[in-house]
Model the fold of this input.
Amino acid sequence: MTNQLKITPAAAIPKHLTGEVQSKLAYVDEAILRARVAADGIMLELREPVEGPRRSELEEKVQRVVSMMVQGAFRSKAQVLEDFSSRPVPFSADPNTELLARGEMFQEASGIYTLGPLMTRLIAFFDGQFTELADSFGATSYRFPTLIPARYLERVNYFRAFPHSLTFVTHLREDLDTIDDFSQHAACDEHGLNTPPDSFSKTQTLLSPAVCYHLYFSLADKPLPGGGLVATAVGNCFRYESINLASLERMWNFTMREVIFVGLKDFVLQNRETGRERMRGFFEKIGLAYRVESANDPFFIGEFKKQAAFQSAFQLKFEIRARLPFKNSTLAVGSYNYHQDFFGRSLNITLPDGSPAHTGCIAFGLERMAFAFLAQYGLDEARWPEGMRKGVVSGG
Ligand code: AMP
Ligand code: ZN
Done:
């Protein structure tokens, strides 16, 4: 008996969807430890061998994912707005080894990391630069909570679009016996805490998956003051990425800085474009090898085809993809987003003429930004571009 299972997909998986299908296989069955979509089929590595009906069930679920994501999917041409990916960079080793050895990265659990002094300085530097971008628009600063009410996420269709990546928050029920029992018996085994499920209250709250939602919620059900707004905030974000969690590239708990635009369509689109142009100058200063290209959000299986096609048809999302020389691939360190009037309509945010407000945001992943820079320049500050050496003040 083997832990490997090879499945030949009933529908051919086009090359541009390989990554999307592969990442979704993580959520198909708890038995799946690793999934790889290759030219000759889907290779699954399982936690234990499966046979008989269990194996048929697994195969059926995999085929279902493939057919839902692939059949009738149309390939939109990737649009590249900037391409500086061949900018020369001096480093090509895997920064993880040194980050771990120097205590710059400590894994508490899968997707959860403590970062050391160099990473902290780098992130503070990048956040400072992104805040300067926000300042250049005269943005108002906000602080948003880490928790987010379920009823808000429901209102913006989040449960339908991204159910797989949600993180739920709960607490013990207000019940003396339940709390007493927990305090006496709570213990962790290899699967987690051994608490009876009925000890927990019904979920009313989740961990926030993005920053800008909080602004939209605060503007809901009223006219937009002044008819237009630019805001900025930094915050903890949570996306459960299962077996796809990998180093600082894909975390469960990460930090995002956003610059957020709310107002008329042209106001949002023009600011998104101006923001991109300003960032081009910054990326040149720090010598980052990257490109900006059209992208889509990682919608769950049932929504993927329709939503991804919609996003690309209306040019709603562009990603800043930094080169990772050590694995000959790229990593999205930020995105330029336009949501049309989706939040304006869902949340009833109105413009002076009564129409729903348009929204957009520029979002930066701070850990990814620092990680991508180190992947291109290494941890030795002497090899960094001058703009970076000066900006990242030494000290611990
Ligand atoms: P998005 O809203 O998906 O465009 O996310 C904005 C940015 O957040 C991305 O470009 C990444 O830099 C960062 N980000 C998103 N998901 C993760 C993750 N799981 N781990 C680390 N950074 C992430
Ligand atoms: Zn946003």
Notes: The first strand starts at residue 4 and ends at 7. The chain has 13 helices and 20 strands.
